[in-house]
Write a structure and sequence with these properties.
- There is one protein chain.
- The chain has about 350 residues and is of the alpha+beta class.
- The protein has 2 domains: about 230 residues, Gcn5-related N-acetyltransferase (GNAT) (Aminopeptidase, 3-Layer(aba) Sandwich), CATH 3.40.630.30; about 70 residues, Beta Barrel (Barwin-like endoglucanases).
- Strands 11-14-13-12-15 form a 5-stranded mixed barrel.
- The radius of gyration is 22 Å and the shape is globular.
Length: about 350
C-alpha cells in the first residue's frame, strides 16, 4: 500500500507548490499562484516551526502531503497561529435587525451585513488543497485532520479557538455573484484580482475602499442572497468534514465571496478530543493494512510527520505499527506517537 506523509514544508517543495497553486480553480487566498509569495511562505513556515516559539503570534505553518514512494507533493494545508494583529482579519457579520411600526401593524426582520475587524483572533486552519487526481482516496482526511494532531501536541502555540474560512460559491466562469453585486462597485476589480491581492498580504486597500455602512441583504438580487454562506462545490467535502469534527456554522462570511466561516473550541475538535499518546511496542514487517484499525498517527516532534494507516492497539495501551509506517514517521520502537481514529466512532448503547 502506498504511504503518504504530511510533514512540514521544505524549500525544495517550491516547484510542487507552484504546480498545485496553478491548478486551483478560482485561486486560493492563502496560497496564491505567485512564485515569490510561495517562496516567502515556505521561509515563513520554516521560521514558525522554530522550537523556541511558546505562544501564538501570527505564525503560518505550512504542511506538504508527500507520496513517500515518489517524493511528489500532492497536497498542502496550513495553520495560522493567530489571525489579525497589525493587519486586522476582516469578515462580514450577518445580523438580524427588526423594524416595527405599531400603528400600521408592520413588523419586519431583515438580515444585515456589518463589517467586522478582528485584531487578535483565533487560530485558523487554511490553505487546504489536494491534487484533483488524488481525491476520493481518503487523503483529504489526512491533509485536513492531521493538522489538529500537531495542534494537540503543541497547544501553547495556538489559540483556544480555531476557525476555518471556506471558499464561497463561484459560477461556471469563476465569478462570485456576491462580489459582482457588492465588492466590484467599490474596488473596480474582478473577484480574482481582489482575492489575489488579499492573499499577497496587501490588505490596506480593504480598509480604504470597503464600505463602512451596513449592507441590507434584501436590497441584493435573490440569486445573490442565495449564495451568501454557501461554499464552492469543490469545498463541500471539506465543510462536511469540519462539521463532523465539531465545528459550528457562524454568522460570519468572507468579505469577497461570502463563503462561510466555521468555528470550534480547539479542545472540542473530535480529532483533538479523541486523540491519545501511546508508546510503540512493536514494529512489524507485515505490510500496512493488517489487523489494526485505520487511524491517524503522528510523531510528537516539532519536525512533524503524520500518516493514515493501520494501528494495532494492545491491551496495555501500547500500539504496534508496520515497518513502512514507522519509516514514514521516522520513529523507532519505544517512541511515543499520537493516535486517533480516522473517522468519528459510533458508540452503540
Amino acid at each position: 500500500m502506498t504511504i503518504h506523509v504530511l510533514r512540514s514544508v521544505r524549500e525544495s517543495d517550491l516547484p510542487f507548490l507552484q504546480k498545485l497553486a496553478a491548478t486551483v480553480e478560482g485561486g486560493l487566498t492563502t496560497l496564491p499562484n505567485d512564485p515569490q509569495f510561495l517562496e516567502n511562505k515556505i521561509v515563513e513556515s520554516i521560521r514558525a516551526f522554530d522550537p523556541r516559539v511558546r505562544k501564538p503570534a501570527g505564525e503560518h505553518y505550512l504542511f506538504a502531503l508527500e507520496d513517500v514512494a515518489t517524493g511528489e507533493v500532492i497536497g498542502t494545508s496550513g495553520i495560522i497561529a493567530c489571525v489579525g494583529g497589525f493587519d486586522p482579519f476582516y469578515s462580514y457579520e450577518i445580523r438580524r435587525e427588526s423594524f416595527t411600526h405599531e400603528p400600521l401593524g408592520i413588523s419586519k426582520e431583515v438580515r444585515v451585513l456589518h463589517l467586522k475587524r478582528s485584531h487578535k483572533g483565533p487560530s485558523e486552519v487554511c490553505s487546504l488543497f489536494l491534487d484533483p487526481r488524488h481525491r476520493a482516496s481518503g487523503l483529504g482526511r489526512l491533509l485536513s485532520l492531521a493538522r489538529f494532531l500537531f495542534m494537540a501536541t503543541f497547544p501553547k502555540r495556538f489559540d483556544a479557538h480555531v476557525i476555518a474560512e471556506l471558499r464561497g460559491w463561484l459560477d461556471e466562469q469563476g465569478r462570485s455573484p456576491f462580489w459582482e453585486s457588492v465588492g466590484r462597485h467599490f474596488f473596480e476589480w474582478d473577484y480574482t484580482t481582489a482575492d489575489f491581492l488579499s492573499g499577497l498580504g496587501n490588505k490596506a486597500f480593504i480598509e480604504d475602499l470597503m464600505p463602512e455602512y451596513p449592507i441590507y441583504l434584501s436590497l441584493l438580487p435573490p440569486e445573490v442572497q442565495a449564495v451568501i454562506g454557501r461554499v464552492h462545490r469543490d469545498t463541500e467535502p471539506a465543510l462536511r468534514l469540519l462539521l463532523s469534527e465539531g465545528f459550528q456554522q457562524t454568522d460570519e462570511v468572507d468579505i469577497f465571496d461570502a463563503g462561510p466561516l466555521v468555528r470550534a473550541p480547539l479542545a472540542g475538535v473530535r480529532t483533538v478530543r479523541q486523540s491519545r499518546v501511546a508508546v510503540v511496542k512493536a514494529i512489524e514487517a507485515a505490510a500496512d493494512g493488517g489487523n489494526g484499525a485505520r487511524m491517524l498517527v503522528s510523531n510528537r516532534a516539532i519536525d512533524f510527520r503524520a500518516c493514515l494507516g493501520c494501528v494495532q492497539e494492545i491491551d496495555d495501551g501500547t500500539v504496534a505499527i508496520s515497518t513502512s509506517l514507522a519509516d514514514a514517521l521516522r520513529i523507532a520502537k519505544g517512541d511515543a506517537v499520537c493516535v486517533v481514529p480516522a473517522r468519528p466512532q459510533t458508540i452503540t448503547p
